[in-house]
Amino acid sequence: MSRLFATREGDDGLPGPERRLAVMALICGTTMAVVDATMINLALPSIAAGLEVASSSAVWVTNIFQVVCAAFLLVFSALSEIIGRRRLYVAGLSLFVVAAAGSALSRDLDMLLGFRALQGMGAAATLSIGPSLYRSIFPSRLLGSALGLSSLVVATGYTAGPAIGGLVLSVADWPWLFALPVPIGVVAVVLAWRALPREAGRRGGFDWPGACGAMLMLGALFLALDGVGHRTPAWQTLGWLALSLVVGGGFLWRQHRAPFPLLPLTLFRQPRFSLAVASQGLAFVGQGLAFVALSFLYQQGMGFSPLETAFLFTPWPLMIMLAGPLAGRLADRLNPSLIACLGLVVLIAGMLALGGLGTQAGILDCLWRTALCGLGFGLFQPPNNRELMTSVPAERSANASGVMSTTRTVGQAMGVAMVGACLSAGAPVQWALWGGAAAGALALLTSLARVSRAEDAMRARRRGASESVQ
């Protein structure tokens, strides 16, 4: 860990001591958001009972957060170029903290949903530019290791969230779940304002028509996918999907012609970037699908309790915690695309193994299969993120970060929708897991297509480093 904060002559990024404080700010912000999301999912029955509303209505406590967050990711990544990433990150964290306090004080569902929407906006502001801040904070030689650290933080949050939520609910009512992140958030705001890199925003206008189009396009798409996952009427789901496609066409038309496009389409002319984005989206389809499918399989198919199901999920984030930092370090020295491909092979093997689970399988049968998936995902994600972020110029880091966050969110939602479609058709839930393996296979083919390009980029980077030394 200490090597992440050691400074060498000629390093870009922040000096070692400043780097440490900046990373602490990002860790606090990420932990707060991830733990909050996992705790609230666990608390939905308690919220429904406490506010005396139907369970179907309480689900919107989660849904509205996700829809608003997804809708604003591209918008905030573009806005950060004008006002600066430090200002946007601090503003997003502050909004999240204030809205969390408001959620804790809410006494009816409408008030709670309003504050959850504001929390979604705050989360979008931080998530949209988080990866690009790692690129500004760390020297290029350590970027893979830094992104491995980011994966470790996220996995830790996913592991700890349900346990913390269950502990809080065992001694207190649900509003305390929203109040819990507030002190951490205040610390994160202070650290972020003090330590994150200061930068001047660019001059020029903001693409307001593109921003409105992006919000409507992504919001409608997410509602369509959510409709598939929750079996809403077909006409409603198709209506949201049609709206998303129509607005998406207009959005692309606008981006080709806007003087300052919200999403510069020139990013996708770089094959390494486009292929990394596609690989990421497909991999997150598999992860989002597996988390929902396994909940049904373990509880309805195999008879495990919710607590036992939470335990059976634990190996996935634990293996990411172990494999992610290692994969990040390797990606700084070896071809990151090759490491990502290895991770996808392991992920596919794990998904196929989970798809082969019978209803009489034991706990150990479930644990090693889930651990295999976590190992594969942990080996895949940091190298792929490194490829995605370093394949574009530094001045486009915020845009690349916004695309990364949007792809991850949409991929997970598509995975959930696939499970919903499978269940609606009356098919065994294992079929959905095999679909996740197929998504992983497509991700592997996509990732293999960029191996040689990544190798060329590594050679060019080494030549540049040796020339600067000479």
TrEMBL record:
SUPFAM superfamilies, A to Z: MFS general substrate transporter
Membrane-traversing stretches: 21-44, 56-76, 88-105, 117-134, 146-168, 174-196, 208-228, 234-253, 273-298, 310-331, 338-358, 431-452
Domain Major facilitator superfamily (MFS) profile as annotated: residue spans: 22-455
One term under GO cellular component: membrane
Membrane topology annotation: Multi-pass membrane protein
Keywords of the record: Membrane, Transmembrane, Transmembrane helix, Transport
Pfam families according to UniProt: MFS_1
Keyword Transmembrane helix included in the entry's annotation: yes
GO molecular function: transmembrane transporter activity
Source species, domain of life: Bacteria
Matches recorded under InterPro entries: MFS (IPR011701), MFS_dom (IPR020846), MFS_trans_sf (IPR036259)
Subcellular location: Membrane
The name this protein goes by in its record: MFS transporter
Species of provenance: Halomonas halmophila
